[in-house]
Amino acid sequence: MTIVFASNNLHKVEEVKNKLRMPILSLKDIKCFEEIPETGNTFEENAFIKANHVYTKYKKDCFADDSGLVIEALDGEPGVYSARYAGEYGNGEANMDKVLLKMKNKSNRKAKFVTVICLILKGETHYFRGEINGIITGQKMGSKGFGYDPIFLPDGSKKTFAEMSLDDKSHISHRALALRQMQLFLKGK
Q: Tell me, which fold does domain 3-187 have in CATH?
């Protein structure tokens, strides 16, 4: 089975291929270069929008994810706006700087990373959700990973996601948890 991962984020594609160990096509592989707008109000809605776009237009089984950082002291921000929190889509440095500034005088540092995967397989839609709790650090630490990884310290860890190897992160991350659920589902197919 070959399936399309509806993403052009090379970091995500690498992480997913590493975790699933099955043939995965990216949007680039199927010549999908258009921007798929994330207009939903929830992670589930955004994941569905992306997966449904690919399934409808390219007639290929596919999955998409929507992920984000949810910070308790900021009433759930940045949430579904994580990738464009500081304005420009995908500007990780600006997004982290905005979070660190807003968190400057907050004693409650609790946060969680959330991933929701929407899989459209043979016309049927399935959802898988992964969450990992942690805290927002006071400064950026580490150079690996992407997005908010340098400021997220998972519960029970002494390393931020950006200080972990891809293998270590792929065992515990929110995306890994959702992918594991999807992988188990696909094994039953």
A: Maf protein (3.90.950)
Distance (Å, whole) CA 168 – CA 165: 5
Catalytic residue among 61, 65, 66, 149: 66
Catalytic residue at 155?
no
Give the sheet arrangement for strand 124-136, strand by strand: 24-25, 3-5, 62-71, 110-121, 124-136, 152-154
Non-local CB neighbours of 13 within 8 Å, separated by 6+ positions: 5, 7, 24, 26
Whether the pTM exceeds 0.70: the reply is yes
Please choose, from the candidates 125, 145, 115, 137, the residue with its C-alpha nearest in 3D space to the C-alpha of residue 185: 125
Q: What is the per-residue pLDDT across 149-174, written as a single tens digit (0 to 9) for each?
A: 999 999 999 999 999 998 888 789 89
Locate the domains of the chain by residue range: 3-187
